[in-house]
């Protein structure tokens, strides 16, 4: 996971730790290396700038300079600022899902095709049943790909949640409203709506999901993004965030050789918390996202 970034940072972190004295010159040199490592990992430029400027400010501050091991203190600052870039400042509450509504609480899933939306619905259903003892119903509003509906049915059955069937001739909003009505009548706590994704950003897709959002008024609108997509992941996140009031992000495929760009900048670019990370193809491969733990992993 983010091995390249970790390798690149390992060298400079080692140098930092060894510095008994921090000067403006050696600090600048180390930060230049960190900056390059982040840019190479596809972290968005404004996020890199903000990060480096915050680290620089603290590096030359009293707490670091007067520390007995200034190099070590500087590594601490880098760790802290990496975590903060990924949302640590938002507090542990930020990764929690909200259920504060009259049941059923609706969770709307958004994102491009192939990023892992349907798999994530299965993972979330399992997580909500096991960790929160919720009764979960899933439904697919993807009327363009019958295979997508069948796939959702299969993952839902695998985790033992309930599935609301939809048909390709139905309209997405009608499907979602019918599922919501069914969920109310059958006392489901949560309705998760999977939606159609395209291969790229597309006006019709945005209008359709905005209409779904307006009709079912979800308490959570989660944007699912593939961490392997690097800079592209950040651009699509920005486009969806502009079109929909997202409440959080799910970062998938962090178990692959993602370069780190999306993990490190999607929170900064959208202002929305990363709530979960997908770490396997299997349906138990979902973790609550923890910025500090992630920063530790990245620094190795
Ligand atoms: P959708 O088109 O967005 O609904 O994407 P799918 O749920 O069909 O997933 C696309 C592919 O990504 C499938 O092969 C999934 O098994 C895989 N996938 C989804 N999430 C993860 C993950 O966290 N890690 C890995 N390694 N694969 C994932």
From TrEMBL:
It is an enzyme of class 3 (hydrolase). Its main location: cytoplasm. Signal peptide: none annotated. GTP binds at residues 111-118, 194-198, 252-255. It comes from the Bacteria. Keywords: Cytoplasm, GTP-binding, Hydrolase, Nucleotide-binding, Ribonucleoprotein, RNA-binding, Signal recognition particle. It catalyses: GTP + H2O = GDP + phosphate + H(+). Residues 273-286 form the SRP54-type proteins GTP-binding domain. Its EC number is 3.6.5.4. It is found in: Cytoplasm. The keyword Repeat does not apply. Part of the signal recognition particle protein translocation system, which is composed of SRP and FtsY. SRP is a ribonucleoprotein composed of Ffh and a 4.5S RNA molecule. Composed of three domains: the N-terminal N domain, which is responsible for interactions with the ribosome, the central G domain, which binds GTP, and the C-terminal M domain, which binds the RNA and the signal sequence of the RNC. Involved in targeting and insertion of nascent membrane proteins into the cytoplasmic membrane. Binds to the hydrophobic signal sequence of the ribosome-nascent chain (RNC) as it emerges from the ribosomes. The SRP-RNC complex is then targeted to the cytoplasmic membrane where it interacts with the SRP receptor FtsY. Interaction with FtsY leads to the transfer of the RNC complex to the Sec translocase for insertion into the membrane, the hydrolysis of GTP by both Ffh and FtsY, and the dissociation of the SRP-FtsY complex into the individual components. Belongs to the GTP-binding SRP family. SRP54 subfamily. This is Signal recognition particle protein.
């Amino acid at each position: 996971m983010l091995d390249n970034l970790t390798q690149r940072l390992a060298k400079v972190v080692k140098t930092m730790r060894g510095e008994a004295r921090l000067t403006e010159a050696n600090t600048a040199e180390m930060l230049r290396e960190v900056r390059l490592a982040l840019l190479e990992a596809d972290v968005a430029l404004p996020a890199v700038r903000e990060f480096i400027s915050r680290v620089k400010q603290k590096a030359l501050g009293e707490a670091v300079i007067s520390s007995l091991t200034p190099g070590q203190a500087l590594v601490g600052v880098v760790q802290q600022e990496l975590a903060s870039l990924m949302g640590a400042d938002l507090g542990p509450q930020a990764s929690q899902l909200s259920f504060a509504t009259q049941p059923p609480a609706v969770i709307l899933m958004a994102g491009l095709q192939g990023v892992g939306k349907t798999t994530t619905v299965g993972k979330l259903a399992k997580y909500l049943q096991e960790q929160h003892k919720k009764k979960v119903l899933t439904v697919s509003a993807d009327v363009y790909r019958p295979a997508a509906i069948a796939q959702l049915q299969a993952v839902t059955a695998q985790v033992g949640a309930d599935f609301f069937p939809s048909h390709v001739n139905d309209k997405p909003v009608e499907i979602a409203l019918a599922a919501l009505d069914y969920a109310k009548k059958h006392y489901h706590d949560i309705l998760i709506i999977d939606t159609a994704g395209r291969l790229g950003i597309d006006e019709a897709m945005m209008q359709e999901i905005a209409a779904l959002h307006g009709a079912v008024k979800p308490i959570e609108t989660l944007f699912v993004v593939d961490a392997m997509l690097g800079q592209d992941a950040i651009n699509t996140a920005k486009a969806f965030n502009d079109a929909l009031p997202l409440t959080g992000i799910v970062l998938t495929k962090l178990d692959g050789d993602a370069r780190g760009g999306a993990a490190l900048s999607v929170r900064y670019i959208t202002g929305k918390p990363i709530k979960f990370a997908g770490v396997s193809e299997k349906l138990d491969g979902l973790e609550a996202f923890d910025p500090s733990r992630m920063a530790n992993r990245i620094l190795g």
